[in-house]
Amino acid sequence: MMMQQTKVGLNVAAVAAAAGLLVGSMNMSSAFAGQAGRQADPEAQAEGKKLGVGDKAPKLDVEHWIKGDKVSEFKSDNVYVVEFWATWCPPCRTSMPHLSELQEKYEDKNVRIIGISDEPYDKVKDFLTSEDWPEKTQYTLATDPDRSVFNDYMRAAGQNGIPTAFIVGKDNKVQWIGHPMNMDEPLAKVVDGTWDPMEYQRQFERQRQAAQARQEVFQDLQSGNEKAAMEKLDRLIDEGNTDLRFLKFQLLISQMNKSEEAWQTARIHLEESWDDASALNEIAWFVATNPQVKERNLRLARMAALRASELTNYEDANILDTLARVHHENGEHDKAVRIQRMAVEHAEGEQAREQFRMWLDRYMEAADDNQEDGN
Q1: pLDDT by residue (tens digit) across 320-355?
Q2: CA 52, CA 54: separation in Å to the nearest integer?
Q3: Order of strands, edge to edge, in the sheet holding 140-143?
Q4: Taking the CA of residue 288 as centre, how many other CA atoms within 13 Å lie in the half-sphere pointing to its CB?
Q5: pLDDT in the model for residue 374
Q6: How many CB atoms lie within 10 A of CB 86?
Q7: Is the domain 42-193 a CATH 3.40.30.10 member?
Q8: Residue 172 to residues 34, 73, 148, 365: CA-CA distances in angstroms?
Q9: Which regions in the chain score pLDDT beneath 50?
Q10: For residues 169 and 197, is the Cβ–Cβ distance under 8 A?
């Protein structure tokens, strides 16, 4: 099966992953959504030292500097991006060319981008010298297998998902924490001196509080108290955490058997996410493939996947793969073949390309069978 097609059901662990509470449960589709695992983990912060916006950035005690010069200290009047990634992480790989573009853009403005893995040296070195990754990674890269830097940054900041980037300002203090694909605006403002870290700190604190509430939702689900979990979800959604509406839909459709309310929730989520390609892709994939969705609304899934494809100019391999799957499930096998060929063309890395090809073969076989049947 394709990398993104590893989700086979919605149990408590899957619900927790959807809420951003667990690490390592991302499939390719949800991972490229860029939101899975993005929330702060209050338990991680409680166990040791904390790191937040406005705090002095810890020194980079990195074990292996693989590409670029070692950063022994943060220099005043320089801006640094400290980003955590891994070779196995699809959204990390997707972010790499963009990080290279940002490094080139700010090269003459004393900006240094540093990507840090925690994998063995040989694994990271082999990855960075394979295929076209040397050209795609034009910034400093390192790995720290003892995870000391991970603990100083990720764990201290309560972050439990990668990729995650920390912008360190000219005063050597943390200015911003988030997904590297979302940091263009804050990085530009940090560089030109117009960034307001205090306002962002307030936003970050609200996110932390929402993450704690998500943890409570997970605990209710784990104990079987679905009513309490739903009440907390509704409160969080009313407070502005509209991304959790998708989790509400998942619970209603797969665990609570409330089909009518579930699809109403899905339609609202579709409207709210109309300009968010990743969220739309997540909706479409879940509706089209999850075995616990007994009555599939493929029309809704197709609307979501088509819109996501339009937003990404039909160039995102994982979104194209989702659209092909929706067409296939809807019996539109020729369309599935055409779109899946595009997914193969735009795939990042040979492993993903091979997986996409495997499903292209299945769609082609289904199309041939359809023609033989005279349909």
Answers
A1: 999 999 999 999 999 999 999 999 999 877 778 899
A2: 6
A3: 64-67, 140-143, 111-117, 79-84, 164-168, 174-178
A4: 29
A5: 60
A6: 20
A7: yes
A8: 27, 10, 19, 58
A9: 1-46
A10: yes
> Pairing relation of β-strands 111-117 and 140-143?
parallel
pLDDT score recorded for residue 243: 82
CA distance 118 to 88: 11
Q: What is the pLDDT of residue 375?
A: 57
Q: What is the C-alpha to C-alpha distance for residues 62 and 71, in angstroms, rounded to an integer?
A: 9
Q: What is the CATH number of domain 3-36+204-372?
A: 1.25.40
Which is nearest to 214 in space by CA: 188, 187, 241? 241
Cβ–Cβ under 8 Å, residues 143 and 116: yes
* pTM higher than the cut 0.90: no
Whether residue 163 has a cis bond before it, omega within 30° of 0: yes
Q: Measure the CA–CA gap between 58 and 152, rounded to whole angstroms.
A: 7
User: In this structure, what token pair is assigned to residue 205?
Assistant: 């604190």
**Sign (positive or negative) of CA dihedral 280, 282, 287, 293:** negative
Measured distance CA(137)–CA(95) in Å, rounded: 10
Structure confidence at residue 72 (pLDDT): 87
Query: What residue spans define the domains of the chain?
Result: 3-36+204-372, 42-193
